[in-house]
Amino acid sequence: MTGIIGWNGELVPSHQAAVSVMDHGFLYGMSLFETMRTYGGRPFLLERHLGRLAGACEELGIRWTEGAEQAEAHIRAIMAANHLEEAYVRYTVSAGENGFGLPGGDYPSPVTIVLVKPLLDVPDALYADGKPLQRLRLARNRPEGNRRFKSGHYMNNILAKRELAGYKSAALGAEGFMLTAEGWLAEGIVSNLFFLTGRRLCTPDLATGILPGITRGAVLELAADCGLAAEEGLYRWDDLLEADEIFITTSVQELVPITSLWGDTGQAAVVSGGRIGASTRALLDAYRSLTVRNF
User: Fold this and answer.
1) What is the per-residue pLDDT for 145?
2) What is the distance between the alpha carbons of residues 143 and 59, in angstroms, rounded to a whole number?
3) How far is it, in rounded angstroms, from Cα 4 to Cα 13?
4) CB 263, CB 241: distance < 8 Å
5) Which of 15, 26, 142, 176 has a 20 to 30 Å separation from 132 between CA atoms?
6) Distance between the two ends of the chain, CA-based, in angstroms?
7) How does strand 192-197 pair with strand 268-270?
8) Which helix (H) or strand (E) is 209 found in, with range?
């Protein structure tokens, strides 16, 4: 972790920053965050990330707003203070102090925390050879409200990560994948899922309780330009087993092909001949063309 962080708009050494024990982000998990990466030193799709964050804050009564220009300047100042030209960025809003007990009103004094760290060096082979997708026994929990926020309620994801560590596929860099309690495809521990059957590009519907990922949204918008018909729906694991191509999306690693499926009993099925598929490659190229405009 880098030494200087953003703390309510200021640059502060990380060891000097402390969240109050009365902060409801700590007491009750009332915190929200966005993760993103930079291209050319600028946070990518920042307006979309801030829009999702602001919408969640409004619904939860956390009185927070920040414009993209101000946020970008703050992020770039933190990066400069840590001598980073490119960065992985976590932008967090915690509800702030509001007494001991469950409140009935809004949170007027949230705390904003911005952390940065160097981007991992991702080998080109990942985008050619892909990675495994490991089906987990743990079900994806339902959202706390009407829709899923990118919130500090991460116990489900941490338990999933621990389960993943017990499979052979973990040593191969697998992403863990959760289904809903009803058996519908949901999402990865840190990713959204897409699969292709012919020219149909399918992704689980938000009704399954998944996070409306920023990269997920961008890929849905790019589908038509790549000659694909995008759809959101309810799907089963068997649909993946019959898919021509599969990939996952994250804001940091973009589109990553899935080239093998691992069941919870350890069996593996090869996808797309063990290599990135043509449609996945076209979508990845189209997405990366968007990032170039960020420079």
Assistant:
1) 87
2) 14
3) 4
4) no
5) 142
6) 25
7) unpaired
8) none
Structure tokens at 177: 């994948």
Ranges assigned E (strand) in the chain: 4-7, 10-13, 31-39, 42-43, 88-94, 111-117, 131-135, 175-179, 185-188, 192-197, 200-204, 229-233, 245-250, 254-262, 268-270
Of the pLDDT bands very low, low, confident and very high (cuts 50, 70, 90), residue 2 is low
Q: Can you say how many angstroms the Cα of residue 255 is from the centroid of all Cα atoms in its chain?
A: 12
pLDDT of residue 93: 98
Distance between CA atoms of residues 76 and 98, nearest Å? 31
Taking the CA atoms of 283, 168, 263 and 134 in sequence, report the sign of the dihedral they define: negative
Q: How many other CB atoms are found less than 10 A from the CB of residue 104?
A: 6
Q: How far apart are CA 40 and CA 38, in angstroms?
A: 6
Neighbours of 160 (CB within 10 A): 24
Rounded (5°) CA angle 187-53-105 = 115
Strands 192-197 and 200-204: antiparallel
Q: CA nearest 17: which of 154, 146, 111, 107?
A: 111
Residue 157, φ and ψ in degrees, nearest 5: -70, -40
CA dihedral 106, 107, 112, 113 (to 10 degrees): -110
pTM above 0.85, yes or no: yes
